[in-house]
Every structure is written in C-alpha cells, then in structure tokens.
Amino acid sequence: MSKHTGDNIPRELSFASSILESISDGVFTIDLEWKITTFNRAAEKITGIKREEAIGKRCSDVFRSSMCEHGCALKQTILSEKPVIDKTCFIINASGERIPISVSTAVLKDENGNVVGGAETFRDLSELESLRKEIEGSFRIGELVSHSPLMRKIFEIIPAVAESMSTVLIQGETGTGKEVIARTIHSLSKRSGKPFVAVNCAALPDTLLESELFGYRAGAFTGANKDKPGRFQTAKGGTLFLDELGCISPPLQVKLLRVLQDGVFEPLGSNTPEKSNARIITATNSDLMKAVEEGTFREDLYYRVNVIRIELPPLRNRKEDIPLLSETMIRRFNSIQSAEVTGLAPDVLSIFMAHNWPGNIRELENIIERAFVLCREGLISVNHLPEELINIAAPEKSPHGIKRTTGMLEAQIIRSALERNNYNREAAAAELGIHKTTFYRKIKKLGLDLPEKDGRSR
Amino acid sequence: MKIALSHWEERIAPVFDVSGSIQVVNIEKTTVQNRITHDMANSSPRDRVAFLVDQDVDTLICGAISMQTEQALNSNGINVISFICGNCEEILKAWIDGKDLTAGPAWVMPGCCGRRNQPRRKGHEFGRRRKRGCE
User: Fold this and answer.
1) A chain contacts of residue B15, beta-carbon cutoff 8 Å
2) What is the mean pLDDT of residues A267-273?
3) A209-225: per-residue pLDDT in tens?
4) Contacts made by residues A123-130, CB under 8 angstroms, sequence distance 24+
5) Which ipTM did the prediction report?
6) Interface test with B, best of A28, A44, A69 (most B CBs within 10 A)
7) pLDDT higher than 90, residue A229
C-alpha cells in the first residue's frame, strides 16, 4: 500500500510527476484513442505547445512528426507491446522549423496488465545536428561533400567562382557530379533566385538542339505554329548549364561562340537579335584540347568557355570520400523512402573501397539505391549488393587474392599520401615512413599513373 | 477553382512535407465538381510543390508544413492555409461556406493560434485567379 501525500496523491505518482518535470527529454502519454493525457515541461519547450493546449488533443496534431503518418513508433509499441528505442525523425514547430528528434516509446498497462496507452519520450537533436554540421562544415559546400584534398581545392575556389560572371568549364568523367558543381555555383551566386537551366547537348540531334537553345518563331519550319522561347531566354538572369559540350557540331559552335562573345542570338526564323544575360557553365567528359587539336572543336570557342576550369577527380582517386558519400546518400534515401538504414556493414565498405567505380558517384548512388530496395533497416550487407559488384571486388576468389588486395590497398595509400602532399614524392614517402627509393619502386611495381608535377616545381 | 487537401485517414495529414496523399478538389461556385486523390508517397517536398503547380491548384489546406516548402508554394502563387487539423470533409465544407479556418482553435493545430498565417479571405474568390509567381 503506497503512502499518500497531503493532497491525497500516491507518493509514487507525485515522485514520478516531479521526475518527469525535471528531465530535459520531452515526455507525453496517450490513451487508446490517441489523445494526449500528460505532457511534461520539456515537451512544452521542444514543441512550443503549452500543456493545456496539448492535453486531450490527438497526438499527431500536437506532435506533427515525420513518422506520425507512416511508421508511428507509439502505434508499433502498442500493437507489439515492445518498446521502440531512439528512432530519429523530425517535428515541425509553429514557425515551420524542422526540429530533428530521437524518439523512444513504451507501452502503458493497468494493474491487471491491460494495455491502456503509450508513453513517448523525445530528445531535441538540433544542437547535436548543428555540431555535426559544424564538424562537416569544412568538407561541405551546398550539396557537395568531401574529405579529399583534391576536392578541398575545388571547394576553396567555388565561392569566388560563384561571385564572378565568367564562363566555367567543368571537366570530369561521367558521374563525377558536374551538374551538382554547376548547381552549387548557381546557388551560391547572386543569381540563385533566377532559373538554373540544364541542357544535355548530347541528348538531342543538332537541329533540335539549335531550336532548344535559341528558340524559334512561328512559321520557322513545318509544325512551328507559335513562338517558342529557347533555353537562353528561359535562363534569363540565371544560369545556363550546357552539359556534354564536346558533342555539338561545328555550325552550332559558331552560334554559341557568338552568344558568348556578343551576348546576342537569333531564334530560328527570326532576323532580330535577342540579348542573353544568362551565365554560362559548360561541362564535358572528353578532352576538349585534344578535340581542338583534331579539329573537331573550335579553338576560339575552347578559349571562350575555358575561362575558369574545374577538373573533377574520378571517385577511384578519392576513395576516402566513399564512407562520407555513402552516409549522405543513406541519410537522403532514409528520409525520402521512410527507411531506417543505419549504414554500411564493414565488409560492404571493404568491397566499396576495393571497387574501381568506373561510373563514379552515380554508380555508388545507384548501388545504394538498389540496396534500399532489399534493405529497409539496419546495415546494408553484402547480400544487398549486386552480384557483379561482389564478383569484381572479390579478389580473394582468384589465386592471387592476397597479392592483389595488398597491391590495391598499397596503391590507394600511396595515392592518398601523394594527394595530401601535393604530389611531392619525397614528402609522401616520409609521411608513410618509407625510403624514397622504396616509394619509387612501389609506384613502378604497382604501375601507378601519376601526374607529372611533383609538388616541388613552381 | 482548385483546392488541394493534404489527406490522411479522412483527416488533414499532420505533416504536408511527408503526407502520403493529396486530394485535389475542383470547385465551381460552391459545388464540388470532382475530386481526385493522388498518391504522394516518397515524393520530396520539391516534387510536391511541382505537382501542385502542375495541377494548377489555387489553395492548399494542410497540416504542419516546413517554412521552405510553404515559401516555395507561395512564390508559385499558391495560397497556403497551413497548420490546420481535423476531418477533411468538415474542413472542406467550412471553407466552401466561406469560414476562416484560421480564426479560432476549431481547426487550428494546438500551439498555432495566432501564428503568422495566410491573409484572411474576404468572402469567396471563385472565378478570380491568383496571379502565378512564375508567369
């Protein structure tokens, strides 16, 4: 029999109430009709809702979390009578701010063991989230994320590039994120409120591309019943991103050169020049200089687009980014698909580190997206990877497994050391604690293709 | 005139940004002409904005909404009546009857009375199209 306080409230209840009021985690309880029955002080503080407004209301109208509709933790707990621990989601407060939280739940039973409701505790993760962002801050600009020294150099120049009006040429293999760089430049520029228009020059035949870029007037050709503005016009005041620039034909190169030089173009079927003030960002995965030498790309256009050049390294040269990129993608897919994947299993990460990634970041993204189809929670394991990736990255199955694996690891370590030391071989050897002769021998043995610069030349 | 309701179990969905379906209702004068429920599961907030713009929706009635999504809708000329809760049918009827959904606590989510919200409608605006921000 419990002792009673002066107000005739059982002492245990009074204690529980005091404890609930003193803790920094938000706590509320509900009955079986999803109505809130208790709401502590921390819950008031985190949600910005007063207790008297919350009590008696439906919990989803008060709590407004991203999982109320799909995957309500309380519902899960009441149905299964098993607690949910530290499930992360966000709530939206009255100002429209998203507050990241972690949620734990428990079932409430009466003295006869009948379920009478549920209790939910939630913790505000805003501070933790902002600390995490601060730590990541030096590795992140806009949508870009990296730990690589090669990418760091690009991150350093992007704010200045965004400030300027100059034409940019982004070079990099397919899937390295050329459009992401272009979007980031646009979003950091003063033009961010204006349109960002992307055109893939390789996706359209030449005649269509011309009308797509410059637009046409009614009657310009059969079927042109009315005027159609081109992408240059749509991107007015904003940014026009021309991907796969190396694929455009010589006649179209001349037209493009005119826009870039004089800022004017003529829609098809029109004799009146129109002005364009769109900023041009171009991208290619081919060697434009080589194309100039071969005569397939105009030299004057090359120099016109090559005012600022950004070279994106392939993923195989910045494998240290794989864990960070994977984590970012997992977080994004979790949010879009309401999944609860927590990360990559260690052997998956080993496979990822050993793979050569010919499709670069796009390939990594596709593999993680595919894994999400098979894996909805916990760690992504080898079973969730496509067969071909496991076969490619399973050198232990070959007779020279250990040698090949060691070689790959050595190559990766040497490459990273060189990048960190601006390709100064001697400094990289010193960092790795080996003699420079051994270092050179290893480079030769592993057949590493390294840039000519050695970090000492000016 | 087209209005959209963020829909969940016959109630307004608690969070528009992740709601599973949106009901688009075509209203002429004070009569519901037709309504279609669209599956929006796994759509990003950006896709939702694009969808409502594409559907030519004039007004969205929804529950909680992140400020970025609300701003994106407003800048595309869509009037947003946000932080509303309750039965969809009752809310739709009240709106058609010209009631101000945000005036009292009846349909406003707890803790959201008096938040800066959409301008109070003065009577019906049927037939009068809001100017789209992107036009």
Assistant:
1) 64-66, 68-69, 92
2) 85
3) 888 898 888 877 877 77
4) A123/A24, A123/A25, A123/A26, A124/A26, A124/A46, A124/A99, A124/A100, A125/A88, A125/A99, A125/A100, A125/A101, A126/A99, A126/A100, A128/A100, A129/A100
5) 0.83
6) A69
7) no
